[in-house]
Specification:
four-stranded antiparallel β-sheet, disordered C terminus, globular, single chain, five-stranded antiparallel β-sheet
Length: 182
Amino acid sequence: MAILPSGRIIATMRTRTGHPYYSISEDNGITWRQAQPMRFMPGGEKLKHPCGPCQISCLRDGRVVFLFRNDNAPIIGDPLAYWANRDPIHITIGVEMLDLTGGLAPEEDNGGLYFSKPKEFLTGLMLEPTAVNPKRKAEYPQFIEWGNRYFVIYSSQKTDMLMKEVPAEFLDAYRMPVQVKP
């Protein structure tokens, strides 16, 4: 969950539909809108995601960070593949622009969020060839803003917790233009 620049709370959730869902509360979590698929923009394409964690956070400057898989293809022959298909993790950066969603039904308005093209962000780690499990997955990511620095903390197959610093320059490439009102 995250508090959006408008003060609304957004919760994201995994589903078995191949898409992450979200819900919005406008009254500090007392009531919530019906959950809807997350899209890249209001009325746009649905994000792709298997049944894995999909974390959302809001930076102090108002940008919204969403971590997800960007793939909903099943693993051939595995009926439970939606549990396993979690690596690599992609990032998309969004902004909240409520005044541009006028006239759209709630199931199409995407909560007023507009997201960038996704970019691969984390993937399995190659450890020493003699390691017990040399190929690991990046799972359960959490994005953290600390002072003027950014970090992602994630699990590697539920055996390790790892932390990487995200260079500010990486996120600066996702600066959104200031919204101009007519």
